Amino acid sequence: MARTDLPITPMPKAGLSLAGALPTAAAVDGHAFGHSAKRLVRIRNSSGSPKTVTAVIPGEVEGQPLADRPYVIPATTGDVLIPPFGDIYAQDDGKVYLDYPADPSGLTVAVYEMP
């Protein structure tokens, strides 16, 4: 899978207007962004059905793979803000991976970094 890196939008101390469209459409092959305890992910769904976005958790415990974390984004007006991901989400390359459904149409995403 050839993931695309997501741009990081810095949040100014004065605040960030959340009006308008999110900058990046979901990609069939998924996205990645550098792991940081200061980064939030926002996902919006404009399609007519709910969609699940999955944060991939690498690694195993006692030989058993860890379960990935799904986030259901509601239909039509779904707008979900996901808090910073813990260290468990960091891949070997230091990034967090997001997977999208087979039909990611209607999903847009942004990553914000708190000051």
Describe the structure.
This protein is an all-beta fold and 115 residues long. The protein has one domain: Sandwich (Hypothetical Protein Tm1070, Chain: A). 0% of the residues lie in helices and 43% in strands. The strands form 3 sheets. A 5-stranded mixed sheet has the order 1-4-11-6-9, with no helix packed on it. Strands 2, 3, 5, 10 and 12 form a 5-stranded mixed sheet that branches. Strands 7-8 form a two-stranded antiparallel ribbon. Strand 7 (60-61) and strand 8 (64-65) form a beta hairpin. The protein is globular and about 45 Å long. It starts with a strand and ends with a strand.
**What sort of overall outline do the alpha carbons produce when their principal axes are compared?**
globular
Count of separate DSSP helical elements: 0
Kindly provide the radius of gyration, computed on alpha-carbon positions and rounded to a whole number of angstroms: 14 Å
CATH top level is Mainly Beta
Secondary-structure element order, as H and E?
Answer: EEEEEEEEEEEE
Oligomeric state of the chains in view: single chain
Q: How much beta, percentage-wise?
A: 35-45%
Report the end-to-end length measured between terminal Cα atoms.
Answer: 32 Å
Q: Which stretches are poorly predicted, pLDDT < 50 over at least 5 residues?
A: none
Total count of domains: 1
Task: Classify the helix fraction into a percent range.
Answer: under 10%
Largest sheet: 5 strands, mixed
CATH architecture assignment: Sandwich
CATH fold-level label: Hypothetical Protein Tm1070, Chain: A
Mean pLDDT: 93
Number of strands: 12
Spatial sequence of strands, sheet with the most strands: 1-4-11-6-9
Structural category? mainly beta
